[in-house]
Amino acid sequence: STSLYVGELEATVTEAMLYEIFSMIGPVASIRVCRDAVTRRSLGYAYVNYLNSADGERALEQLNYSSIKGRPCRIMWSQRDPSLRKNGAGNIFIKNLDENIDNKALHDTFAAFGNILSCKVAVDQQGNSLGYGFVHYDTAEAAKAAIEGVNGMLLNDKVVFVGIHIPKRERQAKIDEIRSKFTNLYIKNVPLEVDEDEFRG
């Protein structure tokens, strides 16, 4: 079977609702809305499994960013291979995005450069854009082409920065390394008659 990840779901979306939508494309093997183990509340995403990959491909093309209970859903191939997800190759970061650019607009902008595994604009709790997003391609070459093609360009009259996404852990390690090399000290209210030799002594 072929597995699709369906995200950005409203909390009350059920398997039955998703079955109604996704079975219009082709025979569905199974659907699972992921829920909190204790509260059983929806976690806002689901997995839809088709009997054949052609139907999965069609669902991705026709239903991605379509509205389910008033919210545009985000569909991508379920990434069962964790090494592809975690190695970060093909992952890019986009900042200075216009607030009107949503997941679909971001996807449409970057789809020309290669096969997108996932694409997301960061939003606050009200669903408003935070002005940055991420696109994960299946190859580092596609990511490089996207950076070369879009970095410094205007999107909705704003110049965007596009670069390789560096995970937070790596960014923090780099900051810590730089801080360990530089130890500047600022001292104020020093009498004018104190010279540099007295400081060193």
UniProtKB/TrEMBL annotation:
Belongs to the polyadenylate-binding protein type-1 family. The keyword Transmembrane helix does not apply. Residues 2-80, 90-167 form the RRM domain. Keywords: Cytoplasm, Repeat, RNA-binding, Translation regulation. This is PABP protein. It is found in: Cytoplasm. GO terms for molecular function: RNA binding. GO terms for biological process: regulation of translation. PROSITE patterns: RRM. The keyword Repeat applies. GO terms for cellular component: cytoplasm. It holds the Pfam family RRM_1.
